């Protein structure tokens, strides 16, 4: 069940990343055209940056599922098969701990229960917590930054799901991890 959901989620993340990459390309093209004709749209730069952030987090999470993240393999290459598998299990445990930490820090940052206790009233929430996450506005776009920062929840969830899958299904790891798989 976890394996299938992790696979589904990774495919969804990659599709979202691809759509965001296409959006970034179109925004950059729009930016070039508008600047060339002397009508610069400054919000395009900021939106392209936010799309790139979202794309990166989606792709990074999917890479955990597929176990093809960028890695320095100097140590792993020097180990025999059993030691390498143990090292990969340690990496899986560290990634799972990181996922739990990300969820914890997202919870502490967004404070969803405090927001609910404030009756979803942002001003009351800010007064009680001195947390302004829900009211900070982007520089050139007329949206709140909380919409940009929501990617952290998606990343934390994907990292949790994929690292849990990797812990529960270690046999799914690539056979050698040394480039001979």
From TrEMBL:
The keyword Membrane applies. One of its GO terms (molecular function) is transmembrane transporter activity. Pfam families: DctQ. The chain crosses the membrane at residues 12-41, 47-65, 86-110, 146-164. InterPro entries: DctQ, TRAP_DctQ. It is a multi-pass membrane protein. The keyword Transport applies. Residues 24-169 form the Tripartite ATP-independent periplasmic transporters DctQ component domain. Keywords: Cell inner membrane, Cell membrane, Membrane, Transmembrane, Transmembrane helix, Transport. It is found in: Cell inner membrane. One of its GO terms (biological process) is C4-dicarboxylate transport. One of its GO terms (cellular component) is plasma membrane. It comes from the Bacteria. Its main location: membrane. Part of the tripartite ATP-independent periplasmic (TRAP) transport system. Belongs to the TRAP transporter small permease family. The complex comprises the extracytoplasmic solute receptor protein and the two transmembrane proteins. This is TRAP transporter small permease protein. It comes from Cohaesibacter gelatinilyticus.
């Amino acid at each position: 069940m976890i394996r299938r959901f992790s696979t589904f989620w990774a495919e969804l993340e990659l599709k979202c990343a691809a759509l965001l990459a296409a959006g970034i390309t179109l925004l950059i093209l729009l930016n070039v055209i508008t600047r060339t004709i002397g009508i610069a749209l400054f919000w395009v730069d900021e939106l392209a940056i936010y799309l790139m952030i979202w794309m990166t987090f989606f792709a990074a999470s999917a890479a955990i599922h597929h176990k093809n993240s960028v890695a320095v393999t100097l140590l792993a290459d020097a180990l025999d098969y059993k030691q390498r598998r143990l090292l990969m299990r340690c990496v899986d445990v560290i990634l799972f701990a990181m996922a739990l930490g990300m969820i914890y820090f997202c919870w502490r940052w967004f404070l969803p229960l405090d927001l609910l206790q404030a009756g979803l009233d942002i001003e009351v929430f800010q007064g009680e917590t001195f947390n302004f996450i829900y009211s900070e506005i982007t520089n050139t776009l007329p949206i709140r930054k909380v919409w940009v920062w929501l990617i952290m929840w998606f990343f934390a969830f994907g990292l949790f799901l994929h690292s849990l899958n990797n812990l529960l299904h270690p046999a799914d790891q690539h056979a050698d991890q040394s480039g001979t798989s």
